[in-house]
Amino acid sequence: MHTYSSPIHYHVNVSSIAGHVFDVSLRIENPDQNGQILTLPAWIPGSYMIRDFAKKHYQN
Question: Quick one: how far is CA 6 from the chain centroid?
Answer without folding.
Answer: 15
